[in-house]
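Proteins fold reproducibly. Take a sample protein:
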Amino acid sequence: MVSRMGYKLKFVTIGYLEWRKGQDILVDAIEQLPSEISALTEFVIVGQNTTNLGQQLVERTNGIPNVKMMGKVSRDEIHKMLANTDVMICPSREDPMPTVCAEAMMHSVFCIVSDSIGTAKYIKDGYNGLIFKSENSLELMNKIIWCIKHRDDLKGLGEKAHQIYEDIFSTKAFEKNLLKYVEDMIGKAEN
């Protein structure tokens, strides 16, 4: 992660703009931020914005100066964006295992996630990520404020998030888990 501590804190959310992904919950949280906190932030919302929700969010965020709606971007652009992001927000109402969280952790980006996504089970709140109750925009707003108050710690916290990637989502972790599964199956077949 590029050190951005002298700048506005950059929050990114990436995903198809639809109800289950919860980007409207994020916009609710942004709108509730106190103005002195909002002035310290930059939000980038990435995703196919031709959906009904996408168009509503484009219109709704049009007058919010610290929110940028990006539309759909390439995988390469996502990786470049994550390399320059302070915090990934995954506000999904439901999402078994969002790839974007693993990608953010791969880039040592600290994540705020709703408690209704699969990734939440790997996060220890306040240690290697933050978890908020799904649909609770006030709680999400408070997690955003927490990030502002702890901005000097985000790089180290991002490194702890990277450890989740290494332990759970990396190719090495996948191979280890697959090998254990195969060994267990062979052991059961031999008994």
